[in-house]
Amino acid sequence: MVTDGFITCLWFDDQAEEAARYYVSVFEGSGSRVGDVIRYPEGSGAASGKPMTVEFTANGQKFVGLNGGPQFTFNEAISFQVMCDTQEEVDHYAARLTEDGGEQGPCGWVKDRFGVSWQVVPERLIEMFADRDPAKVARANEAMMSMRKLDIAALEKAFAGG
Fold this sequence. Notes:
Helices cover 31% and strands 27% of the residues. By secondary structure, the chain is of the alpha/beta class. The strands form two sheets. The protein has a four-stranded mixed sheet with strand order 1-4-3-2. A hairpin with a 4-residue loop joins strand 6 (103-104) and strand 7. The protein is elongated, with a radius of gyration of 19 Å.
């Protein structure tokens, strides 16, 4: 039985090491680091000596980046949630994850320059959605649906009915 959690494998064309270093820089601290880089063995064609897999930890989550070629790409069916306590954190992660070719999507979703989808979500929004008053929840949801990067003050105002 697996007792040490899961490791997420991210398939890249050939940017696994670049991506690992980028994610570690975005989530610096909290044990974020690049680990072992395993290279394609000699005699494996054009990839000989290039990184095959790159182990890394970002924000306490373990990953392996695999340079597997262009056959598969990322899409929104899988995303990572970044839970934030403050607007400053929301702003920071939305900016960092969209820099250098990433893009801001609706409702706090962003796509980084590698095509990986992220949800930058204030913890407070989850609390609002768990409220027992359906009118408050509906107002918060309507406000969220009109946003790209989430604005905690505007969500609070909508939730309160203002």
